[in-house]
Structures are given as structure tokens and as C-alpha cells.
Design brief:
By secondary structure, the protein is α+β, with helices and mostly antiparallel strands. It is 28% helix and 29% strand. Strands 2-3-1-4 form a 4-stranded antiparallel sheet, covered by helices on one side. It has a two-stranded antiparallel sheet with strand order 5-6.
Length: 93
């Protein structure tokens, strides 16, 4: 399933570490937003890794599932910084 991951990290060092970690799973489409394609095992691994990289009392990470049949309804206004998916082909980190 495709996921959109967004974050609000207060500390620069933690934010950079998390961004680098997320880049190993997907594509950055905004400064603090990533798109990725994951199975359930990969999602669980991603969540465990995120928990190790953030401060739970200060930071926020949100993960939104996007069903395959809704991908065509994603609207980009302005510069498209890259789509993670291309019809039948997916990049998996």
C-alpha cells in the first residue's frame, strides 16, 4: 500500500536523521512529506525505526495510507517533486 508520511520535528539534528531514514523508504515530495510503497512488514519496521529517531514527547510523525484506486485522484499544484509510483512499477526501499 502507498503511504504518505509527514512530520513536525522540533530539533534540527533529529529532523535531519529522520529525513535521511525516510529517504531510504521513499521519495520526498515536500520538505517534511514523503511518499512510499510498503507492505505490512515494511510498515512495522518503518514505525519501529521512526520511534527510535524521534522524541515522543516533542515530535510528531503521521502516516496516511492511500489506497491504490485513489492514487489517480492525487492533485499536485505547482512543481511536482516526483511521484513515487508509476502505474505498474514501484520503487521499494
Amino acid at each position: 500500500m502507498m503511504y504518505v508520511i509527514s512530520y513536525d520535528i522540533t530539533d534540527d539534528k533529529r529532523r535531519q536523521r529522520l529525513a535521511k531514514y525516510l529517504e531510504s523508504y521513499g521519495v520526498r515530495v515536500q520538505y517534511s512529506v514523503f511518499e512510499t510503497e510498503l507492505n505490512e512488514q515494511q510498515l512495522n519496521s518503518l514505525i519501529k525505526g521512526i520511534k527510535k529517531k524521534i522524541k515522543l514527547s516533542e515530535d510528531t510523525v503521521r502516516i496516511y495510507p492511500i489506497q491504490k484506486d485513489l492514487r489517480d485522484r492525487i492533485v499536485t499544484i505547482g512543481i511536482d517533486k516526483g511521484r513515487f509510483y508509476d502505474s505498474e512499477f514501484y520503487i521499494i526501499g
